[in-house]
Amino acid sequence: METTFTGATLQATALKMREAGVGMLPVLENERPIGVITDRDITVRATANGLDPRTSHVGDVMTRRVFCCYEDESIEEAARRMEEHTIRRLVVLDRGERMAGVITRDDLASLPREERAGPVTGE
């Protein structure tokens, strides 16, 4: 899973997103998520504020609220949380609060019905 940090430039982050084919990267500090940055944060927030992506940083525009679930929670719970908060992605944590991955609505939609009751990690 690709991640970034507050000091990364917006340009480098946008390139990382493009290369990974993702629209969001968790922002980590000491292996723990402290925010997320989305393609929308970069294109709308940064552009609207006149920020130069070559010199502006993730910490300038990232979303500081991180919606999470735990890797041992059910997929149904993750789906409920996404619906409740009207979001498309959740950062998945282990019980030590370290990032274990990201789960998206698309991930959930592609699962066969019988797998939706299992844990987020599939273990």
Automatic annotation (TrEMBL):
Residues 1-53, 62-120 form the CBS domain. Keywords: CBS domain. The keyword Secreted does not apply. InterPro entries: CBS_dom, CBS_dom_sf, Diverse_CBS-Domain. Signal peptide: none annotated. Pfam families: CBS. Coiled coil: none annotated. CDD domains: CBS_pair_HRP1_like. PANTHER family: CBS DOMAIN-CONTAINING PROTEIN, CBS DOMAIN-CONTAINING PROTEIN CBSX3, MITOCHONDRIAL. This is CBS domain-containing protein. It comes from Sorangium cellulosum (Polyangium cellulosum).
